[in-house]
Amino acid sequence: MSDWKTLVTTCSGLLSAGTEPSSPSRSSKVVHIIIDGISQEFFMHTRMRTCRRLMREGISFSDCTTIWPSLTGPAHTAINSGSPPAVNGVNRNFFISEGSRHVVNPLKESRVESIAEILGSHGLRTAGICGQMNRGLQYYVSEAYLGHHAEHITRAAIDAWNRYSPQYLQVVYFAVDTIQHAFGPHSSEAAETAHWVDEQIGLLLDQIQDEHVVVLISADHGQASAAVHAEEIDSLLAGSSAVIESHGRFLLYHTDSPTVDQELAGRLEQLSCVQQVIKPSDAISCFPDDYAVVLTDGYSHYQQNDVYYRWNHGGLSNLEMQVPLIISGSCITPHVVSDAVSVLDIAPTICELLHITPPETMQGQILTNRTELPEEHVARS
Ligand SMILES: [Zn+2]
Known about the structure:
Largest sheet: 9 strands, mixed
CATH superfamily of the largest domain: Alkaline Phosphatase, subunit A
Shape: globular
Mean pLDDT: 88
Helix content: 25-40%
Number of domains: 2
Bound molecules: zinc ion
CATH class of the largest domain: Alpha Beta
CATH topology of the largest domain: Alkaline Phosphatase, subunit A
Distance between the termini: 16 Å
């Protein structure tokens, strides 16, 4: 067994102390908190007290990237499954079926198991105060019921902890994202909201203090400016036969002709409002039938009746793609990891912490191989 695997096993063994020896994983616990919509830049700039403490006491990753498209539904699904949108099939928050005009929600239609489904199938107790992107939670209080009020979310999370004793609890705070859409990431309103959420995380952790708990703090995406509608794109595509689907910070198009699609891509790439055109065959693509036009920071593209945001996400800018990640617990030696990691690494890491072998659908790496235990913990085990 490699050194890091020894360390992880030892760490998990420590987490298991004090319960039936026949089921050691039953006493390991993971609390995964997602602060929706907070970029690494905003996170570091805001200096949130509880999160800073967790950084000091745990492993702090300085280069964590989310998936593209940096939209809430696809990003949460990727985090919760350890698989990218091209694999799990969740590439939009929802869309309206052209033929039936029905709203289709692909979040329910992930092709791979969620972390909750996997842990549940191994007999672990799972709970979530979150959106619908973590399918299969046994104890679930929906964002749709609670709204985005951080205090309500904390109260529901403490209730879940006390009433259900989950080995895995996911808590998602949406307020920072909600406020940024209206006021922007550099506003006093956004900073105030971040501090409010941070305070609530502190209250939650106070209530669930337990030496067997490992806490992960992460985010699904950040936000970029989206103040200017990319009119040049409309001018360029006007008169073409392209079918367009706008998603704010990017849009999709296709025509009936691969030659025309390719020719349009070449012309779109010349526009200053376009950061990148992603072809269906590109590795990052998760849209097999569409070209994706990703916009430069500052631009957005909407169609009639779309909800308009001055700040938004979905693009490839660092502000949207770079997110915080912290793993903290009594058995973890504090240090900073500057290697590039991904939100896809979160689910396999949670599996490892809970003694479950990550399934093959999880494409990320186990991050606790970067964990170094203090001498006394190694000696005691
Ligand atoms: Zn989000």
